[in-house]
Amino acid sequence: MIYQGGCHCGAVRFEVEAPEHVEVEDCNCSICRMTGFLHLIVPKRNFRLTAGEDQLTTYAFNECVAKHLFCRVCGIKSFYIPRSNPDGVDVNLRCLTSVPAQVTVVPFDGENWDANAAALAHKSL
User: Fold this and answer.
1) C-alpha–C-alpha distance, residues 13 and 11, integer Å
2) pTM over cut 0.90
3) How do residues 82-101 score in pLDDT, each as one tens digit?
4) CATH match of 2-124 with 2.170.150.70
């Protein structure tokens, strides 16, 4: 299935290919907890930015592996390149205009990221 999504103001738009039933992570790390991001990690080949590349700004912290991409107009992070899966794209399920038919939300202990990150490696294959 192809799902459409983007930021709040519409300047950034994308398409993501994902199944009708998805598992997303609800991470408790500091940035995810504060932004309410629900993680739908897909391989890069399943993601296509359709508008707004020039409207994105990047924030990186800690080891600067993750590339947090924000719309410079409205400030929404609708997707980013995750530290756990730098070969993939992590889409915020809450930024899709239509969601998969079945969504399973699982807790992810991002506060203890080093001990748990390997559990996500398969998601971008």
Assistant:
1) 7
2) yes
3) 888 899 999 999 999 999 99
4) yes
